[in-house]
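I had to read the description of the data format several times before I understood it. In essence, backbone conformation is discretised, so a fold becomes a row of integers matching the chain in length. I therefore recommend that a typical entry be quoted early in the introduction. For illustration, here is how one protein appears when written out as sequence plus structure tokens.

***
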Amino acid sequence: MIRLDEMNASEFNTYLNYAIRNYADEHVKAGNWNAHESMSKAAKEFEQLLPEGEKTAKHKFFVIRVGDQEVGMIWLAERSNQKGFIYDINIWEGYQGLGYGKQAMKEIEEVARKLGLESIGLHVFGHNQIARRLYDKLGYIETDILMEKKI
């Protein structure tokens, strides 16, 4: 059984360093950015999105725990019209494939309900087939598809 604990400042700073690197890498894998520019672009996007860091209004960051063990994290934002958005979810290596991601997604739905949200959206990179299958199983539907072909 997992639980979601709000991140403290230290946990957020550790997460932010990881998130910027990971986001940059994902954009490189997706073919959106080149490796040379990816870190600066990712850092800039995070600075714009979170001008007050973990204290940015309407953004909530959680550590996913099993007992006292941290197994991942999830970031939920409140958007307009009772809509939420999951900006990031990660299950750390060594804990993947054990159902923690699925459990965390169900728990974040409860958090969203308590916040008065009526729906949750998210973005998934096309190459992340594992995440896409999980979101499909949980009832998320594709609302927008962007496709590209290298020529």
Remarks:
- The two ends are 48 Å apart (CA to CA).
- The beta strands are 2-6, 59-66, 69-78, 83-91, 119-122.
- The mean pLDDT is 93.
- The first helix runs from residue 9 to 29.
